[in-house]
């Protein structure tokens, strides 16, 4: 079973991008490619060749749901696990994202010390499935 | 020549003659007088008979003796109240008065026995048990010694007049409303009445409504809904619903009631209130809360994340003072997150409560179930929940789920604020037409400055917490909205170092015994 090495993270909040980068790279030892918008991600994500994508939901212009649909249209990205990260934690919100096809949803705020472990566990689960 | 020797004899004779003549005249005069007196008496009798006839022909007349027993009634009285002569004669007049006017009946008799005339409105019990409203004049008859002999009661039936006045009053009241009021026949859905507001909304005249059915009204989006609601009204007597008419984009709250018009016939009275603006405001409020909570969580994610990384020393070792400061930042981030979670919980609870249907619930049983369910929680805090007096079987319209939540909330609060080893009393009792549920602790009482805003949201956010118990204070605001959903009220009594007793009053359900029995049978 391949280990998780490369993760793409898409979020419009620079502070959250920084925390996630530190959590995944410094604490978890992962390679992290980050984009501040859906549009930016769609332009470069193919080159990044991620094994898992962390995607914010509420972003200006192209929101997380639209970005999700567009990523799925890219060749080779149909089955890559995409995990949403959201502060909107109502059951209805979570169900909506799962119905869209998200592999899982992580609730903000997250624990920066265990984020990398959570993401690795989700990847193992996705590969096993 | 006159023989003077015979003068005395002549004088006597003359006198006798004069007496005879005068006596005859006096007798004739007396006869004449007597005839005149007889005529006057006859005239008077005729006049009395005439007046009596007029009285008996124009009103509902009854005569009672000095004891109050009915000794005479006219045919109009019999016809108006449905009695037969043989049934009514000999009855005591108090039997004609309904229960609630027995006192008035005694007062009238007391007044007329003293010789005073009484006038006023009284009801008369008809032979079929129904009540007629009359305007009543009671004249007492006294003998030469001023002793009361009998009463003559002259009544005019004003039931119809009063009903017309009441109908006019009701119509005026309906017409002054800014909600639409509609009366219709559940058999054919034909409209019988619409108030001015409803007519104006449709641009109809009163003359036109005979041709209209409820389907023609702008309030009804779907005929199937009305048919279903009519079925419910037939079963339970009332029904409430929110109707959204997509065609005009308006939302109405409709409250319907069964109105009996005869023993086996009824109409449905529905009050339609437009709540489109309220619904839109409610949606906007929810959207705002969602945005606020999201917008707060996002910067908190950064703050908590940054502090968490520092606290874990992932960036290298930190002096202990710096670590203390990071700890303060983390704890307060958690408090803010807790507050956001409580806002969402409050919204969720209110949403759930609004959608919870009400049904007859045995409140005594609910209290005992809550005591059993929360005993474990109490034990953790060293508190015993008990029912000091057995809550008798009192029924109220409620939701088991909402009632459980209310009691669990109040009981856990009471336990938290009670000294270890003490008891918390929970019981239900009847208070006039309400069921009152009491939750009483023996704690330190609620500080005076907190009391006025106890049911407000976030009371503790800027207040010192009591004892060592922390919380956002949302619990009681949720409890209040839950109690209000059950059409009840909540209040409390508190005394320093004695304790606090919360009381929930719910309308007692005893009128609709059938429903209670059905519920008991199904249980």
Overview in brief:
Chain A is an alpha/beta fold and 129 residues long.
Q: How would you describe what is shown here?
A:
With 129 residues, chain A is an alpha/beta fold. In chain A, 45% of the residues lie in helices and 19% in strands. Chain A has a single domain (6-128), classed as Rossmann fold (3-Layer(aba) Sandwich), CATH 3.40.50. Chain A has helices at residues 14-27, 38-48, 64-72, 91-100, 115-128, and strands at residues 6-10, 31-35, 52-56, 82-86, 104-107. Chain A has a five-stranded parallel sheet, sandwiched between helices. In chain A, helix 2 (38-48) runs parallel beside helix 3. The longest helix of chain A is centred in the first third of the chain and has 14 residues, at 14-27. In chain A, 39% of the residues are buried. A five-stranded antiparallel sheet of chain B has the order 2-1-5-4-3, with helices on both faces. Chain B has a five-stranded antiparallel sheet with strand order 7-6-10-9-8, with helices on both faces. A five-stranded mixed sheet of chain B has the order 12-14-15-17-16, with helices on one face. In chain B, helix 8 (276-311) packs antiparallel against helix 9 (320-354). Chain B is elongated and about 180 Å long. Chain B starts with 6 loop residues before the first helix and ends with a helix. The relative contact order of chain B is 0.05. The interface between A and B is medium-sized, with 21 and 21 residues.
Shape of chain A: globular
Return residue spans of chain B where pLDDT drops below 50 for at least 5 consecutive residues. 459-472
* Rg of Cα set of chain A: 13 Å
Terminal-residue CA separation of chain B: 137 Å
Average pLDDT level of chain A: 93
Topology:
The complex is a heterodimer of chains A (129) and B (523).
Chain A: E1 6-10, H1 14-27, E2 31-35, H2 38-48, E3 52-56, H3 64-72, E4 82-86, H4 91-100, E5 104-107, H5 115-128
Parallel strand pairs in A: 1-2, 1-3, 3-4, 4-5
Helix pairs in contact in A: 2-3
Chain B: H1 7-58, E1 60-65, E2 70-73, H2 75-81, H3 85-88, H4 102-113, E3 118-125, E4 131-142, E5 148-157, H5 159-175, E6 180-184, E7 191-194, H6 196-202, H7 223-236, E8 238-245, E9 250-262, E10 265-274, H8 276-311, H9 320-354, E11 359-362, H10 363-380, E12 384-386, E13 395-398, H11 400-416, E14 423-431, E15 434-440, H12 474-485, E16 489-495, E17 499-507, H13 513-522
Parallel strand pairs in B: 12-14
Antiparallel strand pairs in B: 1-2, 1-5, 3-4, 4-5, 6-7, 6-10, 8-9, 9-10, 11-13, 14-15, 15-17, 16-17
């Amino acid at each position: 079973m391949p280990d998780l090495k490369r993760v793409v993270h898409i979020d419009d909040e620079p502070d959250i991008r920084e925390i996630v980068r530190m959590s995944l790279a410094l604490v978890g030892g992962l390679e992290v490619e980050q984009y501040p918008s859906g549009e930016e991600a769609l332009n470069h994500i193919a080159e990044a060749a991620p094994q898992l994508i962390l995607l914010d939901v509420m972003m200006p212009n192209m929101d997380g749901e639209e970005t999700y649909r567009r990523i799925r249209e890219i060749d080779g990205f149909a089955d890559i696990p995409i995990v949403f990260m959201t502060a909107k934690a109502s059951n209805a919100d979570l169900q909506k994202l799962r119905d869209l096809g998200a592999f899982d949803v992580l609730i903000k705020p997250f624990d920066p010390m265990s984020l990398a472990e959570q993401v690795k566990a989700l990847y193992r689960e996705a590969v096993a499935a | 020549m006159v023989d003077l020797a015979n003068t005395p004899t002549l004088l006597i004779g003359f006198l006798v003659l004069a007496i005879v003549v005068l006596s005859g005249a006096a007798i004739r005069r007396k006869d004449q007088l007597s005839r005149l007196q007889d005529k006057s008496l006859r005239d008077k009798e005729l006049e009395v008979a005439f007046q009596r006839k007029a009285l008996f022909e124009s009103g509902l007349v009854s005569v009672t003796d000095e004891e109050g027993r009915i000794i005479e009634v006219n045919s109009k009285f019999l016809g108006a109240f449905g009695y037969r002569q043989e049934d009514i004669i000999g009855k005591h007049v108090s039997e004609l008065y309904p229960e609630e006017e027995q006192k008035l009946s005694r007062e009238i008799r007391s007044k007329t026995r003293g010789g005073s005339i009484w006038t006023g409105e009284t009801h008369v019990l008809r032979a079929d048990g129904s009540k007629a409203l009359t305007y009543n004049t009671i004249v007492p008859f006294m003998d030469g010694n001023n002793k009361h002999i009998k009463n003559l009661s002259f009544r005019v039936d004003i039931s119809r007049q009063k009903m017309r006045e009441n109908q006019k009053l009701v119509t005026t009241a309906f017409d002054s409303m800014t909600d639409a009021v509609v009366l219709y026949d559940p058999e054919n859905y034909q409209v019988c009445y619409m108030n001015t507001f409803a007519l104006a909304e449709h641009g109809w005249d009163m003359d036109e409504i005979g041709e209209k059915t409820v389907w023609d009204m702008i309030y009804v989006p779907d005929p199937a809904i009305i048919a279903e609601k009519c079925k419910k009204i037939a079963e339970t007597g009332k029904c409430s619903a929110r109707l959204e008419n997509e065609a005009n984009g308006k939302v109405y709250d409709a409250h319907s009631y069964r109105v009996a018009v005869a023993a086996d016939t009824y109409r449905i009275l529905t009050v339609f209130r437009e709540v489109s603006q309220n619904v839109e405001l409610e949606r906007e409020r929810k959207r705002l809360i969602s945005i606020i909570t999201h917008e707060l969580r996002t910067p908190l994610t950064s703050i908590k994340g940054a502090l968490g990384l520092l606290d874990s020393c992932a960036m290298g070792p930190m002096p202990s003072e710096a670590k203390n400061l990071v700890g303060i930042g983390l704890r307060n981030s958690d408090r803010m997150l807790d507050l956001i979670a409580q806002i969402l919980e409050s919204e969720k609870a209110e949403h759930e409560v609004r959608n919870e249907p009400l049904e007859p619930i045995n409140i005594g049983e609910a209290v005992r179930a809550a005591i059993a369910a929360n005993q474990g929680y109490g034990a953790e805090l060293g508190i015993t929940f008990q029912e000091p007096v057995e809550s008798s079987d009192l029924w109220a319209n409620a939701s088991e789920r909402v009632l459980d939540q209310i009691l669990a909330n109040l009981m856990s609060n009471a336990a938290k604020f009670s000294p270890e080893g003490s008891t918390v009393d929970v019981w239900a009792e009847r208070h006039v037409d309400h069921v009152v549920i009491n939750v009483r602790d023996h704690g330190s009482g609620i500080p005076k400055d907190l009391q006025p805003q106890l049911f407000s949201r976030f009371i503790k956010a800027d207040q010192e917490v009591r004892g060592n118990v922390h919380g956002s204070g949302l619990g009681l605001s949720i409890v209040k909205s839950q109690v209000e959903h059950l059409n009840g009220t909540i209040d409390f009594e508190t005394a320093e170092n004695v304790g606090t007793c919360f009381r929930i009053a719910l309308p007692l359900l005893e009128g609709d015994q059938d429903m209670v029995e059905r519920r008991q049978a199904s249980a």
